[in-house]
Amino acid sequence: MSEPFTAEGRIGSDLNALLGRVNGFYAFESALHVFPVNSTGPSAGLQEWNASGLWRDTYGDMANEYLFFAEDIFGGQFAIKDEVIYSFDPETGESSPIAESLEGWADAILGDYEFLTGFPVAHEWQSLNGAIEDGSRLIPKRPFVLGGEFSAGNMYVLDSVKTMRLRGDLAVQLRDLPDGATVKFKIVD
Predict the structure, then answer these.
(1) Least confident among 2-6, 50-54, 81-85, 95-99
(2) Is the pLDDT of residue 1 over 50?
(3) What single-letter DSSP state applies at residue 177?
(4) What average pLDDT score do residues 45-58 get?
(5) Which pLDDT score, from 0 to 100, does residue 174 have?
(6) Region 46-66 average pLDDT
(7) Taking each helix axis from N to C terminus, what angle separates 102-111 and 9-21, rounded to the nearest 10 degrees?
(8) Which 8-state DSSP code applies to residue 37?
(9) Taking a C-beta distance cutoff of 8 angstroms, is the pair 71, 62 a contact?
(10) Alpha helices, DSSP H only, in 50-97?
(11) Is-contact 94 81, C-beta < 8 A?
């Protein structure tokens, strides 16, 4: 049997303590998903979620050095890198610092959960369509970065891994384009 996954560093230690009390969870009507230590059913555990061959490889080097530990309703990732917690945009591969501690991240989430988790869209979509299954996220029909609306009408449900792989491909395509460039979005299997 392999050793259980443990996150490193100061923030990693706090994350280990949290996950030792509750092995992953959903909050805000599934708008926030904190990954469990070990895979449970369709929900990937931290080690599996952070494995390079699952989805990270589709981002090239944009996802390197992050420990992804949670996600919003749209698959936007929350990650630890260099003792800072970042928000990682799945459509662009860009990140923004949120907090310098797990407690600071939790405070930020609680202080602006509607924006940071996508709760209003998650609530509206689930009111119309039912609960979103474990291991799935909402994904925009028209990507946000290409002008898609943050509304239930622009959403569909897709497996979390597939959402990240699809959007990783988009992020790599958009990476070096100048602002305002014309883009033709095609999904190719």
Answers:
(1) 2-6
(2) no
(3) P
(4) 93
(5) 83
(6) 93
(7) 70
(8) S
(9) no
(10) none
(11) no
Alpha-carbon distance of 62 to 94, in angstroms, equals 8
Looking at per-residue pLDDT, the higher value among 6 and 61 belongs to: 61
3-state secondary structure of 49: helix
End-to-end CA distance of the chain: 36
For residue 155 the two structure tokens come to 């959403």
Provide long-range contacts, Cβ within 8 A and 24+ apart, for 39-42. 41/134, 41/135, 42/133, 42/134, 42/135, 42/136, 42/159
Where exactly are the structural domains of the chain?
Answer: 9-174
Q: What is the DSSP string of 90-150?
A: TTT--EEEEESSHHHHHHHHHHSHHHHH-HHHHHHHHHHH-PPPTTEEEEESS-GGGT--S
Return the sign of the alpha-carbon dihedral for residues 54, 55, 59, 62.
Answer: negative
